[in-house]
Amino acid sequence: MATEVRNTLTRVPTRQRRNREHEVLDAAVDVFWRKGYSAASVQEVADAVGVLKGSLYHYISSKEELLFRIFDESHRDSLAIMQAVDALDLGPLEKLREYVLRFVTYYAENIKRVDLYFREWRFIEGELAHEVRQRRKAYDGFVRKLLQQAIDVGELPASTDVRVTTYYVVAAINGLPNWYRPKGRLTAAEVAERYADLTLAAVGAPPRQ
Amino acid sequence: MATEVRNTLTRVPTRQRRNREHEVLDAAVDVFWRKGYSAASVQEVADAVGVLKGSLYHYISSKEELLFRIFDESHRDSLAIMQAVDALDLGPLEKLREYVLRFVTYYAENIKRVDLYFREWRFIEGELAHEVRQRRKAYDGFVRKLLQQAIDVGELPASTDVRVTTYYVVAAINGLPNWYRPKGRLTAAEVAERYADLTLAAVGAPPRQ
In this complex, is the C-beta atom of A201 within 8 Å of any C-beta atom belonging to chain B? Predict the structure, then answer.
């Protein structure tokens, strides 16, 4: 009963807080992406949101935490994609195709944020650095697992170098922010389709019927 | 005659100067790679070379010029590879294989420098930025040309998306510094061989006999 009352009392401010946090993170993506993380300041993020710098410290304790929180949001989205693909009733290579389709679509729709990640993740330090590194491994790990499963069920030859193949296709996909522009000739769905085809060909999947 | 005398007089200092420049650039690769370009200082490069900061300004006029000169050295090496491959008497896809073999070998043998390039090229500004951007296009352009030639001679189907395929394989190759370590299980030649196989498979080349 006491809990219910507290929830009712705090619900509105909490939602406002969450929206404001999201707004702060979006502004930080833009500022860090434009200036580079090292050169950017919390002041510039505050200016972009239109608040005093002091108010930002209600949401984050440092510039580094801001960067980590941006990465954190992206990581949750990526994890959700992996979990959804894992739950599909498909063979390993079809799961790989589905993963590339969904992941590239997400990338294409969040291109600045993803680009920022690949440029700046090294600059996270201390405990958070360990966390970021562990997460990077999750992406490689998911592709690696699917390739290994594909070998195990006979979809790929046992001679496949799972590790190098994983690095190759993950890097290829991660290169999307280097060139993709949302208003270019290809939609997110079209570029995802091409990346899925290229990936399946690279790993040596038999051509689709 | 006058020219010959001048050459004789300046030869030794010029060579010394060139060696010292190379030493300065190598030290700068290391410092920039370790600290990130924005956070690193010319002072730290001077400390790494073991000279006073003032002496560095005999060789370079600014931190940015130092970064550009590092990129410049790498670019010359890369251009030399492209020109050598272009001159080979091979079909387009065999040239692509040869290019990947040589390029990845070079990357693997110069991993810090290449990694630095991919992290920091965006931070070059002004006139030099234009130069760096033009050069980036040369790498994509070379792969793109070979893929187009492969279509023209019937090695690849006309339906190949040359542009997206180029971005995909160039990004895959450029990801090498993310994982490759010179003292790991694979030699530069071995990793180059795997990357060549993966690239030829990705673009849809028929399997080798």
Answer: yes
